[in-house]
Design a protein that fits this description.
This protein is mainly β. The chain has no helices and eleven strands. β7 and β8 form a beta hairpin. The protein is globular, with a radius of gyration of 14 Å.
Length: 118
């Protein structure tokens, strides 16, 4: 099993920046994909961004150009750099680890709160 721990959330003003971290441990298999999702009260969980073992990335249109995902394989850590934050970015952010080889299990962290407000 893989364990994920998110950190770096907090309160920021609109236009501010924040960097989230997701530290992975356990039986980490390759190839794999790590992503960030978010969920605001009363809304469905939204996939924000993903990064695969090779480094290829994808972003939701709502964050494209503002958020950047990266991974440090030596530290088993994935980062989400968030710039130009907007109030609508307020949510609990979760990282997830997806195995890309059979049986392709998915693991989730507990989440970290991001609040963007004046």
């Amino acid at each position: 099993q893989v364990q994920l721990v998110e950190s770096g959330g907090g309160l920021v003003q609109p236009g501010g920046s924040l960097r989230l971290s997701c530290a992975a441990s356990g039986n980490i298999l390759s190839p794999n994909l790590i992503g960030w999702s978010r969920q605001a009260p009363g809304r469905q969980r939204e996939l924000v961004t993903t990064i695969v073992s090779t480094g290829s990335t994808n972003y939701a249109d709502s964050v494209k150009g503002r958020f950047t995902i990266s991974r440090d394989n030596a530290k088993n850590t994935v980062y989400l750099q968030m710039n130009g934050l907007k109030p609508e970015d307020t949510a609990v952010y979760y990282c997830n680890f997806q195995e890309l080889s059979f049986p392709a299990y998915t693991y989730w962290g507990q989440g970290t709160q991001v609040t963007v407000s004046s």
